[in-house]
């Protein structure tokens, strides 16, 4: 998602292969940070609060649930007056200032979630305006405003633009669009890692294949965001040579690379230091979405089948963003998230935050003595509905098999 790569700081505190956005120059994690009400997950939100909330809300909405008002209110409350989002603001009542480390990944993720939920046009418009203002001269985006562009950040911003009805090809800086940036990171077919995308060039301008950046880049080149379904089959299975690949060619070549990467084992392998021969669950989930969107149905289903057999412990350890990634992978291949290797992804995610309700139901808002508004009655009903529907989906799948 991802856009879903592991922050060095997260690795330092022991979270490997988590669903986290790009490396950022942000605040250090603190054991004193408390998890606020409304936020999904119980781990330190310093680096991924907005990210995991946005993924969680998007995943639940995709399944037809209406997230609890408290969960949505938490996300909207994180926005700065200029439209941007930081990874996490412990005190959202305090105005953002020059010391607030806003970033493109959190902002683009929030845009996708809030636009999908509806009713947040003003917040979304301001966020998109801020994203446009942070575009670099090469047409792409870096994690923080002014930082060098990278494939992951550029792709998640493309997803936000496309989700809100803005054609990314028409969002230009110095005459260059984000698709020009993606083309510059696409490795030629006759080179090592041909077809893949690099995260960004090294100091010598050399491109190195990066599966995480490739999964993000495939979705970006297709103009897709977090939510994608099976697309049209690619023009050809193998990498197609081109001096300046079109967005469609970038996606197809990246899909060919990812398809080969999961062909034997069904999964990607972590490239984090000290994680030799360990599966990369998060990026495999993102690869499932990318392959499905590129019309590579069979390798997408193979990778999803591997996740279904192996990824439940990882998701339980990692938290809400992981469950959201798996839900979005299930959606992409048309699988039932209510029966994921015997686990309901829906129930598991809902249990980590305010329970959603089935779309169409009305939450009953109450007030405490201090005037604080809550949507509490239907939350408890919602979790029952989530659990029940997860069970029904599981039973239905078993009856059909």
TrEMBL record:
Q: Name one GO molecular function term.
A: catalytic activity
Enumerate the CDD domains for this protein. Answer: ISOPREN_C2_like
Prenyltransferase alpha-alpha toroid domain residues: 69-186
Q: Where is the signal peptide?
A: 1-24
Kindly provide the name given to this protein in its UniProt entry: Terpene cyclase/mutase family protein
Q: Which UniProt keywords apply?
A: Membrane, Repeat, Signal, Transmembrane, Transmembrane helix
* InterPro entries, sorted: Prenyltrans, Terpenoid_cyclase/PrenylTrfase
Q: Does the keyword Membrane apply?
A: yes
Query: What organism is recorded for this protein?
Result: Streptomyces misionensis
Stretches that traverse the bilayer: 376-395
């Amino acid at each position: 998602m991802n856009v879903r790569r592991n922050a060095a700081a997260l690795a330092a505190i022991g979270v490997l292969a988590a669903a986290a956005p790009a490396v950022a120059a942000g605040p250090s994690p603190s054991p004193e940070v408390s998890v606020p009400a409304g936020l999904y997950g119980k781990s330190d939100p310093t680096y991924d609060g907005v990210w995991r909330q946005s993924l969680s809300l998007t995943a639940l909405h995709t399944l037809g649930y209406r997230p609890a008002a408290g969960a949505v209110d938490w996300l909207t409350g994180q926005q700065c007056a200029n439209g941007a989002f930081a990874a996490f603001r412990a005190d959202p009542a305090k105005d953002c200032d020059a010391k607030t480390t806003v970033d493109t990944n959190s902002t683009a993720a929030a845009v996708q979630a809030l636009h999908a939920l509806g009713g947040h046009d003003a917040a979304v418009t301001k966020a998109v305006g801020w994203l446009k203002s942070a575009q670099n001269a090469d047409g792409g985006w870096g994690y923080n405003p002014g930082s060098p562009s990278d494939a992951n950040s550029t792709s998640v911003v493309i997803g936000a633009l496309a989700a809100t009805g803005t054609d990314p090809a028409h969002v230009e800086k110095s005459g260059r669009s984000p698709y020009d940036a993606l083309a510059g990171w696409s490795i030629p077919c006759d080179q090592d890692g041909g077809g893949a995308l690099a995260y960004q060039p090294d100091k010598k301008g050399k491109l190195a294949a990066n599966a995480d950046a490739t999964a993000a880049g495939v979705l970006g080149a297709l103009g897709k965001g977090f939510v994608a379904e099976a697309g049209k089959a690619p023009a050809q299975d193998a990498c197609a040579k081109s001096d300046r690949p079109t967005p469609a060619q970038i996606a197809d070549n990246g899909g060919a690379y990812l398809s080969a990467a999961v062909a034997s084992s069904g999964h990607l392998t972590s490239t984090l230091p000290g994680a030799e021969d360990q599966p990369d669950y998060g990026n495999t989930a993102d690869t499932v979405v990318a392959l499905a969107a590129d019309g590579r149905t069979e390798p997408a289903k193979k990778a999803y089948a591997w996740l279904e057999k192996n990824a439940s412990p990882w998701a339980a350890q990692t938290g809400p963003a992981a469950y959201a990634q798996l839900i979005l992978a299930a959606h992409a291949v048309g699988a039932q998230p209510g029966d994921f290797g015997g686990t309901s992804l829906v129930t598991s995610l809902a249990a980590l935050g305010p329970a959603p309700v089935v779309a169409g139901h009305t939450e009953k808002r109450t007030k405490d003595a201090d005037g604080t508004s809550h949507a509490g009655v239907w939350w408890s009903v919602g979790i029952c509905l989530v659990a029940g529907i997860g069970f029904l989906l599981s039973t239905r799948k078993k009856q059909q098999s």
